[in-house]
Design brief:
815 residues; alpha+beta; Beta-galactosidase, Chain A, domain 5; Immunoglobulin-like; nine-stranded antiparallel β-sheet; seven-stranded antiparallel β-sheet; 34% helix; 23% strand; signal; GH95_cat; Alpha-L-fucosidase 2; alpha-L-fucosidase activity
Length: 815
């Protein structure tokens, strides 16, 4: 590329030298333009080390026509700033997002003193007056749901091209080996290529427009937003758009600015009236940067930085570097995460078909193992692209949202959705991508302590079913979903999981144990003795987001009970993790003693007369027999309370519960289907796990592989990725001495007879590679950062393995 531009410059400026004929000059220019075109685009072939070309090809989403709507566009992102790329020919649209563009206050407030009504509600439930309890809690405890007050788009960058002729050889793709989207086509004998990536190194989106003939690129650029924006030119080659997020002038939130810089080679550039026009350029590079005044450390004290200066500094810094270096650094930075795991499930020939055709074939009953491998890696791509160290955590749509008033505000739902976003983080070797989750949950502790004290008269901290970047923790909305103080306790499980996978004692001591303790302090105060059983129960609380018919009035439904299965399982989980951490850290004090005593007296879930695991404390008739939440199965997954080895008496009841839900229409949302995949993987049911992976693709996946709730929610993508990993390896059990048991191919579908996976993480700090052939394990390689023991479970065979620090041990005989 550099040589081509130097040549053009010399030809333009050499005076006093005898010129060659015009025809020869044109021929040489075309030649050097071709050199530039092929040199630059050769970089797009950067491969994933250690994989064959078939796997590289299979790690692409590709299509033969532009996106017709947002759910067909392709996502790019660097954790903070992202875009949806439509791949248009005459007009290209980049729908832009920045993670912190949120509308603002007011936020929900605590109903101070509500604990007095909670005490009355408990008495009503114990008396069987469920509907009255619901009404009391709704009136006296729940705050109003404030909506819309949403995460919002940053805006759109529109590229209007001056092209004449019918395009041919059209293709658009997203290469998740290197996190680059690309559109290519030909018009009137000119081959055009457009590339897009969001660089974390430069904190900017980069767009590269090239053609294989000189002076072939002409376009007009403009920026726009649905509301709350102004646009202006900055100098000759920059546009800026700025404003303050709101909901029709109310809920004033974050102030934002985005700037775009155009860098053409050759041709002319003009600017004015909020547009930039480029004519007859050889190539064009666009840089897009964004900034807001959001202060993650103190959201109600906005940053005072000059947003224009921040954006301009980013753009100028990026523009000073060579394009090749920008791209190389972006790829290297991305691949340091992505390349850790490779997956081959066979079926590589399937990559010869466009992604949308492969999805259609799945819906018609075909099998496509390679598409499932692509879906797995796409989930990892989306997590890397929406959750990086220092960023906000991935919200309900990751970072990609085109609605000023997004469904459910695109917020952080902590009754499964936010947690599901991070199910694949540890097992698929993306522990760093988990960090924004930890930072955010820790930031909720002050508000959660205030809510615990004001609403419940309790110690510790509490989070309910949802929150957002304004760090509120109050119970809001309807009791059906809002009266559920278990969100914080569930989130603390992730802290212990991070330790289990990585063995980071400093993290356990400084982060995991303190926040688990804060949650446990609330739970200890929240629990009450059930007069019917003498055991400790949680409540009044919903089983998200289900309801039941009341025994006294069979046609009346209620939501709240005492001792719902999910509450009890989450509390068991929290207490168990606290005690495990305390033992590792050698903590023995009054608090630990209280937790031990409470755990010993905790009510556990029951099995009903029909053999199913009971969702509530009593055998109520369900209103929605196919409800999307399977809350009472938390203890199977993501928890580890129920296993075939420890609690075989629960396993049949769990199986019956899943089958009952599915037979009544359950699994009809993407994230619910993803949860079911993980259930069946934990149960070792490969046939059912595969059946639901296939259903996830056939019924709940858009052409761009985004998950449908419907509408779009990214949690199904992440849950599906975790589920595929769970079919290949599990590590949630230990032996009696605490040694990790790594189960290999515990739910391998027969449709994946031969394949391999490398780089999966197991609890205990192990990294695992697995190769199988004709449905049987062929080899396993294990690595650990320290000398460590583990046990391998291969079907009915268990074998002990000692791994030396830093060395990979490969085993090919299993007995």
């Amino acid at each position: 590329m550099k040589e081509a531009f130097q040549f053009q410059s010399r030809m333009k400026n050499r005076s006093g030298i005898k010129r060659k004929s015009t025809a020869n000059i044109k021929a040489m220019a075309v030649c050097f333009s071709l050199i530039f075109f092929f040199q630059y685009n050769a970089m797009a072939q950067t491969s994933n080390p250690g994989t064959g070309s078939g796997v590289e090809d299979n790690n692409k989403l590709w299509y033969l026509e532009p996106a017709s709507d947002w759910m067909e566009a392709l996502p790019i992102g660097n954790g903070k700033i992202g875009a949806m790329v439509f791949g248009g020919v005459e007009q290209e649209k980049l729908q832009l997002n920045e993670e912190s563009v949120w509308a603002g206050p007011p936020i929900p407030e605590n109903r101070v003193g509500a604990y007095k009504s909670i005490e009355k509600a408990r008495e009503l439930i114990f008396q069987g007056d469920y509907a009255e309890s619901d009404k009391l809690v709704q009136d006296d405890v729940m705050g109003p749901r404030i909506a819309p007050r949403s995460y919002q788009p940053l805006g759109d960058l529109i590229l209007d091209f001056k092209l004449q002729g019918v395009p041919s050889n059209y293709r658009r793709e997203l290469d998740i080996n290197n996190a680059i989207a690309k559109t290519s086509f030909a018009v009137n004998g000119v081959n055009y290529t457009r590339e897009y990536f969001s660089s974390a190194i430069d904190d900017a989106i980069v767009v590269v427009l090239t053609a294989d003939k000189r002076n072939s690129i002409s376009l007009e650029l403009k920026m726009q937003r649905e509301a709350d924006f102004e646009v202006a030119n900055v100098g000759k080659n920059r546009l800026k758009m700025w404003g303050q997020a709101s909901q029709k002038g109310k809920h004033l939130g974050v102030k934002y600015e985005t700037q775009m810089m155009a860098m053409p080679k050759g041709g002319d550039i003009k600017s004015g009236n909020g547009t930039i026009s480029i004519s007859n350029a050889n190539s064009v590079v666009l840089f897009i940067a964004a900034a807001t005044d959001y202060n993650a450390a103190a959201p109600f004290s906005p940053l005072t930085q000059n947003l224009s200066t921040v954006c301009a500094t980013k753009l100028k810094k990026a523009a000073k570097r060579s394009l090749n270096k920008l791209k190389e650094d972006h790829i290297a930075d991305y691949q340091k995460y992505f390349n850790r795991v490779a997956l081959d499930l066979g079926g590589l020939k399937e990559s010869a078909r466009p992604t949308n055709e492969r999805l259609e074939a799945i819906a018609k009953g075909e099998d496509d193992p390679a598409l499932m491998a692509l879906y797995f890696q796409y989930g990892r791509y989306l997590l890397i692209s929406s959750s990086r160290p220092g960023s906000l955590p991935a919200n309900l749509q990751g970072i990609w949202n085109d609605h000023l008033a997004a469904p459910w505000n695109s917020d952080y739902h902590t009754n499964i959705n936010m947690q599901m976003n991070y199910w694949p983080a540890e097992v698929t070797n993306l522990s760093e991508c988990h960090e924004p989750f930890f930072d955010f949950i820790e930031s909720l502790v002050p508000a959660g302590q205030k809510t615990a004290k004001e609403v419940y008269n309790s110690d510790g901290f509490v989070v309910h079913h949802t929150t957002d970047v304004w760090h509120w923790t109050s119970p809001i909305g309807k009791v059906q979903y809002g009266m559920w103080p278990m969100g914080g306790a569930w989130c603390t499980r992730h802290f212990m999981e991070h330790y289990n996978f990585n063995g980071d004692r400093a993290f356990l001591k400084g982060h995991a144990y303190p926040i688990m303790k804060e949650s446990a302090k609330f739970l200890l105060d929240w629990l009450i003795k059930d007069p019917r059983s003498g055991k400790l129960v949680s409540g009044p609380s919903t089983s998200p987001e289900n309801k039941f018919y009341t025994p006294k009035e069979p046609e009346v439904f209620a939501n709240l009970d005492m001792g719902n299965a999910m509450d009890q399982e989450i509390i068991w989980d929290n207490f168990t993790n606290v005690l495990e951490a305390a033992e590792i850290l050698k903590i023995e004090d009054e608090f630990v003693a209280r937790v031990k005593e409470a755990l010993a007296n905790l009510s556990l879930p029951k099995i009903g007369s029909d053999g199913r695991l009971m969702e509530w404390s009593q055998e109520f008739e369900e209103v929605d027999k196919g409800h999307r939440h399977l809350s009472h199965l938390y203890g199977l997954y993501p928890g580890n309370q129920f296993t075939e080895n420890k609690t075989p008496y629960y396993i049949d009841a769990i199986n019956r519960s899943i089958e009952y839900r599915l037979s009544n229409g359950g699994g009809h949302t993407g994230w619910s289907r993803a949860w079911i995949i993980n259930f069946y993987a934990r149960l070792g049911n490969s046939e059912k796990a595969y059946e639901n992976i296939k259903a996830l693709l056939a019924k709940s996946t858009a052409k761009n592989l985004f998950d449908y709730h419907p509408p779009f929610q990214i949690d199904g993508n992440f849950g599906g990725t975790a589920g595929i990993a769970e079919t290949l390896m599990q590590s949630h059990e230990t032996d009696e001495s605490g040694v990790t048991i790594i189960s290999l191919l515990p739910a391998l579908p027969s449709e994946w007879p031969t394949g391999s996976v490398s780089g999966l993480k197991a609890r205990g700090g192990f990294e695992v590679d697995v190769v199988w052939r004709n449905g049987a394990l062929e080899s396993v390689s294990i690595m650990s950062k320290e000398d460590k023991k583990c046990k391998l479970q291969i079907a009915d065979v268990t074998m002990s393995v000692e791994v030396s620090a830093g060395s990979k041990q490969t085993i090919t005989e299993f007995r």
